[in-house]
Amino acid sequence: MQPQVVAHRGASAHRAEHTLGAYALALEQGAEGLECDVRLTRDGHLVCVHDRRIDRTSTGRGVVSTLTLERMSTMDYVSWHDELPESADELMEQRTVPTRGEVGVLTLESLLGLVKDVGHGTRLFVETKHPVRYGGLVEAKLVALLARFGLADPPSKEDSPIVMMSFSSRAVRRMRRFAPAVPTVLLFGEIPPPRRSGALPAAADLAGPGLGVLRADPGYVARAAERGHDTYVWTVDDPDDVRFCQRLGVRYIATNKPATTRRTLAHD
């Protein structure tokens, strides 16, 4: 089975991460899935921000959990990303130009609206960040928002347009309790001894190793498959690494460069 391409924070090599422009470009580039990180604002809104603080990716400063959505919306989350593309081919892939309405903080509600409008089997992989001040409230808010969009109770895990992910096994267990039919990914940057066999906690459906894990232990993908778990690998941009994941039988490849990754898979 050909791996599916998941745009890591959107087409984030070409557009500022976690912006509508990055996700729109990822869809133009043929990404089958989109990935985002979510955190809770002080007033209880889920926003797509990776870091605990907004300093790196905005014109403002502060910790997400101490800021209101209104305050975060006054800041620019686009202009910091002004790197030139690595090649002329990548320049051609930068077709989407962000508008003023796309420079503010992206809420998960807005991103869900984009995914629902697009349809066509696009999956959204939502990573809840931990540890955070609000603990399990993040998953509770996520499920409540999914329910508003009619996405919290899909007919089956394979049919779900949403996949929840976390490095926290507790968060994965909470999600399984709140929304049993939404598939889950347990992310990890190293394999603890109990999981080297490919086994996962009962609440986790997919294994989520970093690329370095597979470089150190290429047989892990096959062992996880024997236990009934497909593999989601992050973050894969180099064509040689894409081919490596393809040979191993990885199901989902998270990448900052969806077009390059798709092109690599198509040529092999």
Helical percentage: 25-40%
Number of helices: 10
- The CATH architecture classification is Alpha-Beta Barrel
Give the helix/strand class: alpha/beta
Q: Let me know the CATH homologous superfamily.
A: Phosphatidylinositol (PI) phosphodiesterase
Cα-to-Cα separation, first versus last residue: 13 Å
For the record, the count of structural domains works out to: 1
How many strands in all? 9
**Which fold name fills CATH's third level, the topology?**
TIM Barrel
Organism: Herbihabitans rhizosphaerae
GO molecular function, one term: phosphoric diester hydrolase activity
InterPro entries: GP_PDE_dom, PLC-like_Pdiesterase_TIM-brl
Protein name: Glycerophosphoryl diester phosphodiesterase
Question: Can you walk me through this structure?
Answer:
The structure is a single chain. By secondary structure, the protein is α/β, with parallel strands linked by helices. The chain has a single domain, classed as Phosphatidylinositol (PI) phosphodiesterase (TIM Barrel, Alpha-Beta Barrel), CATH 3.20.20.190. The chain is 32% helix and 15% strand. The protein has 10 helices and 9 strands. It has helices at residues 20-28, 69-72, 88-93, 108-118, 137-148, 169-178, 211-216, 220-226, 239-248, 258-267; strands at 4-8, 33-40, 46-47, 123-128, 162-166, 184-188, 206-209, 232-233, 252-255. Strands 1, 2, 3, 4, 5, 6, 7, 8 and 9 form a 9-stranded mixed sheet that branches. Strand 5, helix 6 (169-178) and strand 6 (184-188) form a beta-alpha-beta unit. It starts with a strand and ends with a helix. Mean pLDDT is 93; it is low at 95-101. One of its GO terms (molecular function) is phosphoric diester hydrolase activity. Residues 3-265 form the GP-PDE domain. This is Glycerophosphoryl diester phosphodiesterase. One of its GO terms (biological process) is lipid metabolic process. InterPro entries: GP_PDE_dom, PLC-like_Pdiesterase_TIM-brl.
